[in-house]
């Protein structure tokens, strides 16, 4: 039976309450579901009241559980902060950080960046994840994530990573065979490859100055994998209207892809490196978070658009300070 001053049992309860399921909470704490369930049940027996309505699906907190959650989150944060303070902050970083980025970026760009951090901090381990959303960060399902668009949920800490610039492109061979589309209206005569994955919504329209036009292809192929879209366009199989510059930078420099639709584009979207307040209090997460955000800012600042034909989408200088959502 868990004692009421057993912080590990309270941490199990708080993690369950934030993540929403025993399975998710067990994954966060790297323990068995049965062990986590016993810890919470032990607290309930000691307290003499239920914290969770066990006869509902999904499980819900009781009034006592909601009161306990509000108070114990503060107590656990204070405890973690105290432990960090009492331990020497100059010690070498150890432990792990769970990082989530877009799958395409993780595949083509992430590993050299992670290697640099691990070279500087050899006691650190990085777990790479994909598909994490803002709500997942708030629940503690990962420590640091890159998200497209500014976070809106309370309890998050975030820094700008810089803007994602999107370009309409095709291969030179495709243009020689099928011609250069110069307006969105021309796309009706072309085959389009469309990204429709979890990072951002499908591009429905393009802009040029104050004008907006719909994207309508003659035929199209949709994919949740931005790298599959890139490979198809490189192979001359069609065009794409919203390829991230970070994915095609070398292709443009070396002439494997060229811009189309002069002046038309999907407007840039600012991206953010995000963590939650509980993770922020852990030194290893805080150090990695700040290092990773600044490293990403530097990387994206170097990727200037090689062509003037789509100059409406140029990266801007990113912010350099962490923000907190209210």
Radius of gyration equals 24 Å
Percentage of residues in helical conformation: 40-55%
How many domain units? 3
What oligomeric state do these chains adopt? single chain
Strand-and-helix sequence, N→C? HHHEEHEHEHEEEHEEEEHEHEEHHE
CATH topology of the largest domain: D-Maltodextrin-Binding Protein, domain 2
First-residue to last-residue Cα separation: 37 Å
* Shape call: elongated
CATH superfamily of the largest domain: Periplasmic binding protein-like II
The side-by-side strand order for the widest beta sheet comes to 4-3-5-14-6-15
CATH architecture of the largest domain: 3-Layer(aba) Sandwich
Strand content: 15-25%
Q: What's the total count of β strands?
A: 15
Q: Using the coordinates above, name the CATH class of the largest domain.
A: Alpha Beta
Structural class: alpha+beta
Mean pLDDT across all amino acids: 88
Low-confidence stretches at least 5 residues in length (pLDDT < 50)? Answer: 307-320
Number of helices: 11
The major sheet is characterized as: 6 strands, mixed
């Amino acid at each position: 039976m868990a004692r009421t001053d057993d912080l590990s049992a309270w941490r199990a309860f708080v993690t369950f309450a934030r993540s929403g399921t025993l399975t998710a909470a067990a994954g966060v704490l790297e323990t068995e579901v049965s062990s986590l369930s016993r810890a919470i049940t032990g607290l309930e027996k000691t307290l003499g009241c239920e914290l969770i309505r066990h006869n509902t699906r999904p499980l819900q907190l009781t009034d006592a559980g909601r009161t306990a959650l509000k108070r114990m989150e503060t107590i656990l944060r204070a405890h973690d902060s105290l432990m960090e303070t009492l331990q020497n902050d100059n010690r070498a970083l150890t432990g792990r950080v769970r990082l989530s980025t877009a799958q395409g970026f993780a595949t083509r760009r992430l590993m050299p960046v992670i290697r640099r951090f691990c070279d500087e901090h050899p006691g650190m381990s990085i777990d790479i994840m994909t598909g994490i959303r803002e709500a997942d960060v708030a629940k503690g399902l990962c420590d640091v994530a890159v998200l497209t668009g500014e976070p809106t949920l309370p309890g998050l800490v975030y820094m700008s990573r810089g803007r994602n610039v999107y370009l309409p492109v095709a291969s030179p061979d495709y243009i020689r065979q099928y011609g250069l589309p110069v307006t969105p209206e021309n796309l009706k005569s072309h085959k389009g490859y469309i990204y429709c994955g979890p990072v951002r919504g499908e591009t429905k329209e393009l802009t040029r100055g104050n004008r907006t036009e719909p994207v309508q292809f003659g035929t199209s192929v949709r994919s949740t994998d931005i790298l599959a879209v890139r490979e198809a366009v490189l192979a001359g199989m069609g065009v794409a209207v919203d390829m991230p510059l970070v994915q095609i930078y070398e292709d443009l420099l070396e002439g494997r892809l060229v811009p189309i639709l002069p002046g038309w584009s999907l407007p840039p979207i600012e991206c953010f490196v995000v963590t939650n307040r509980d993770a922020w209090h852990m030194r290893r997460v805080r150090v990695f978070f700040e290092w990773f955000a600044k490293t990403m800012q530097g990387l994206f600042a170097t990727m200037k658009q090689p062509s003037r034909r789509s100059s409406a989408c140029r990266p801007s200088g990113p912010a350099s300070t962490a923000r907190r959502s209210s």
